[in-house]
Amino acid sequence: MRPFAFALFSLALVGCVPAVQFDEPMPPNRLNLPNIPRVFRGTIQDGTALWHIGKDTLQMGDTTLVNGVDFLLRKMAGALIVNSPVPETGEWQVMVIWNDEDQMRAHLFEEEPRLFYYADSALVIPREVKQTGGTFGWEYHLLSPSAAEFGDMVRQGLYAEAARICPLPNGGWVKPSEETRPTN
């Protein structure tokens, strides 16, 4: 798995069924961003892989993902929230991307004890354990937070830690350093 934001995002879109999903794009009742913020646009090179991030597209090799079609972008608590549909369930996988001035960190909601404790004790609608259809029948946890509850989840960092941080392309070309580690 690629360790930085858009690589994580691309794998989230094409990977297996996520263990934590949301019943609607997060945060609820917010407008979708029409474009990818300028600071995230540019080219990211990690080894031989190239990601070209444009105004409303993310291109990875022969694959092009379009904002508003393949993913939805929203903002909350100073973070970019990336929502991608999960075809197997009809639910949403959510990623939080923090912009730390000249770097970005991406986090996915995963099976974390702190997240489940919060979901079971603080959410008005507690988490629901569900099963996908089909031969394998993957188990996943469905969360239905309000906008305020989701904001608390983001502010408390109830997501998985990022493996690495990546420089923001800011219209240019960047190469993530293998030695760069998260600051939190």
What's the number of structural domains? 1
Strand order of the largest sheet: 5-4-3-2-13
Query: What characterizes the major β-sheet?
Result: 5 strands, mixed
How much β-strand is present in the residues? Answer: 25-35%
Question: What number is the mean pLDDT?
Answer: 88
**Rough outline:** globular
Decide which structural class fits the backbone. alpha+beta
Provide the gyration radius in Å.
16 Å
Q: How helix-rich are the residues, as a percent range?
A: 10-25%
Q: How many DSSP H or I helices?
A: 3
Q: How many beta-strand elements?
A: 13
Q: Distance between termini?
A: 20 Å
Query: Low-confidence runs (pLDDT<50, min 5 residues)?
Result: 1-8
What is the chain-wise order of helices and strands?
A: HEEEEEEEEEHEEHEE
Description:
The protein is α+β, with helices and mostly antiparallel strands and 184 residues long. The protein has one domain. It is 15% helix and 34% strand. The protein has helices at residues 5-14, 113-121, 147-155, and strands at 20-22, 42-46, 49-53, 57-60, 63-66, 72-76, 79-86, 91-100, 103-108, 128-131, 139-143, 166-167, 173-174. The strands form three sheets. It has a five-stranded mixed beta sheet, covered by helices on one side. It has a five-stranded antiparallel beta sheet with strand order 6-7-8-9-12, with helices on one face. Mean pLDDT is 88; it is low at 1-8.
